[in-house]
């Protein structure tokens, strides 16, 4: 298994000869770098906990009971809102329709994903649309203001204040 490999050096025009180092497996490994020992899980944890950067990202949890929502409060609020709804059957029909629409869209996406070229074409279409949206609405200050006014008008239409 004594074979050699020629590798061209990038900074000079001379060639470097590297021997193929046999490993424990049947395939030869051609490399000039020695193998590193495998890191055990416990040493990586000790290294990470001992670093100075890990102290910067500590999360502090408050023990104030008023900041955490109570499950009974949540259920009571939901019950009050459900009791305030006049057409419960309409809400159930819309909710069921939304679930069916999500289920059908997942089936359609799965079918499109199984066709060999269509996922890549759809990615290109999405990339093109994203580029157009950035150019049309986000690139210039005036178009960002136009987008903000469009979003506000849609919010007012949804809320019913317009």
Task: Write up this protein.
By secondary structure, the chain is mainly α. 56% of the residues lie in helices and 9% in strands. The protein is built from 5 helices and 3 strands. It has a 3-stranded antiparallel β-sheet with strand order 1-2-3, with no helix packed on it. Strand 2 and strand 3 form a beta hairpin. The N and C termini lie far apart (81 Å).
Question: Judging from the principal axes of the Cα atoms, what is the shape?
Answer: extended
Report the sheet with the most strands, covering strand number, pairing sense and barrel closure.
3 strands, antiparallel
Structural class: mainly alpha
Distance between the termini: 81 Å
Average pLDDT level: 75
Strand content bin: 5-15%
Secondary structure tally: strands: 3
């Amino acid at each position: 298994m004594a074979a050699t490999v020629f590798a061209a050096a990038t900074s000079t025009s001379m060639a470097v000869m590297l021997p193929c180092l046999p490993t424990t497996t049947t395939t030869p490994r051609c490399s000039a770098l020695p193998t590193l020992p495998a890191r055990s899980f416990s040493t990586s944890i000790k290294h990470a906990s001992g670093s100075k950067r890990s102290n910067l990202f500590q999360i502090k949890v408050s023990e104030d009971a008023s900041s955490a929502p109570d499950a009974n409060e949540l259920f009571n609020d939901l019950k009050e809102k459900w009791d305030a709804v006049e057409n419960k059957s309409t809400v159930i029909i819309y909710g069921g329709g939304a679930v069916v629409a999500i289920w059908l869209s997942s089936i359609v996406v799965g079918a499109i994903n199984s066709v060999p070229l269509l996922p890549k074409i759809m990615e290109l279409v999405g990339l093109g649309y994203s580029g157009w949206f950035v150019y049309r609405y986000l690139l210039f200050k005036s178009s960002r203001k136009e987008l903000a006014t469009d979003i506000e008008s849609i919010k007012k239409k949804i809320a019913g204040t317009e």
